[in-house]
Amino acid sequence: xxxxxxxGGGLVQAGGSLRLSCAASGRTFSNxxxxxxxxxxxxxREFLAAITWSSGRTYYIxxxxxxxxxxxxxAKNTVYLQMNSxxxxxxxxxxxxxxxxxxxTAWGTYHYWGQGTQVTVSx
Length: 123
Description:
Strand content: over 45%
Largest sheet: 7 strands, mixed
Order of helices and strands: EEEEEEEEEEE
Shape: globular
């Protein structure tokens, strides 16, 4: 059974940093892309970044380029999202997910999801 477990969320002041982790288990993810999404209260789920497990190629939406960095540790089967210069508008539940689809920005194409971790940025 595939499991994705996020951790690392919390409360941080504006301008601060957090590193989210997504620990994967249950199968080999070499053919997968792992993405990070977030969903703020009352808003749609939003794609943030993704990484190809095998090659490490990364993808970002423009609004987080330069602030967020996605990376992976193959030995630990873990994907990270380093978030710097956080803003109150970054407040949301953050999810990691895995897909084999080439359409990596659409949440509906992801097969597996974690339970989410809350990030709250105070002003």
